[in-house]
Amino acid sequence: VEFDRRAQALRANSKSDAKVNQARSRKPTQPKEQTSIQHLQSNTSQTPLKATHLPLQSPSTTITLQSFPQPQSRDFRHTDHTTTLVFCPPPEFWEPIVNLKKNHMNPRIKRPPYPHITILAPFVKYQRFDDAKRILQEKLQNVQPFTMEINAMEIYFNNTSFTLYLKPEVQPANVLHDIHKQCLEEFPQCTKGPFDPHIGIGYFKKRNLAVSHQRKYQANWRPMKFVVQELYMMHRAGKDSPFEVRGVVSLGGKNPPPLMPPKPL
């Protein structure tokens, strides 16, 4: 009887120890779903989404900054002395320049003067202006509008005459020469000599007359400053007809309303 009593006590103690050990071996855990949510929130707060993390486009997708209609032909062998490619000041700056130019017009030229900086002359035939515009618009899409100032009058000392002119100052400094170079690459036949940007005022046979007019005009000149945003394709219908804007080429690949809209022939 004593043996059976001790055996029962041993079995009871063994079961109690087993329950205690099992309880000690257990560790508190969180549900898997809750842990994954906390981990995502932690990563999101530490590493914000950047553009480089976005999915790339398909390799077959082509991104084009600017696309332009292509010309029907690039054959511009024939030029025309009734057309020219120029920069002009905005119309509100014309009057003081024209008032000087008209004092020194060649009496054989009946058409009215207009202030301009010639880029190419002679230019392409008027009938090819649409194709020329398409080429220039694409060629000059990386040339942004620039600032021009007209403050000084200078004189060209030619072999037999003297030319009084307004000297433009631009920023960036080489932008006019860069534009001329790019235009000449497309229309190499449209030039008569070296490029020296200027706005002509008058021609004189005697040096002292040129110098006296330079001093007179310079003393009364009011400097002007403006933004140049477009090239003009000019054309005159007849010998005594004025040069008119027939096409506008905007700089920078943009197409804002032109300062001088083209006039149909």
> Mind describing the biggest β-sheet?
4 strands, antiparallel
Q: How many H/I helical runs?
A: 6
What is the mean predicted local confidence, pLDDT? 81
Please count the beta strands (DSSP E, at least 2 residues each): 10
Strand order of the largest sheet: 3-2-9-10
- Helix and strand sequence: HHEEHEEHEEHEHEEE
- Give the structural class: alpha+beta
The geometry reads as globular
Oligomer: single chain
Terminal residue distance: 134 Å
Q: What is the helix content?
A: 25-40%
CA-atom Rg in angstroms:
40 Å
Tell me what portion of residues adopts beta-strand conformation.
Answer: 15-25%
**Sequence stretches where pLDDT stays below 50 over 5 or more residues:** 27-65
In a few lines, what is going on in this structure?
The chain has six helices and ten strands. The chain is α+β, with helices and mostly antiparallel strands.
Question: Would you kindly provide a written description of the structure presented here, covering whatever features stand out?
Answer:
- This protein has 265 residues and is α+β, with helices and mostly antiparallel strands.
- It is 32% helix and 22% strand.
- The chain has six helices and ten strands; from the N terminus they run ααββαββαββαβαβββ.
- It has helices spanning 2-25, 32-46, 94-101, 129-139, 175-186, 207-220, and strands spanning 79-80, 83-87, 117-120, 123-124, 146-157, 162-171, 199-204, 224-228, 230-235, 244-250.
- The strands form three sheets. It has a four-stranded antiparallel beta sheet with strand order 3-2-9-10, covered by helices on one side.
- The N and C termini lie far apart (134 Å).
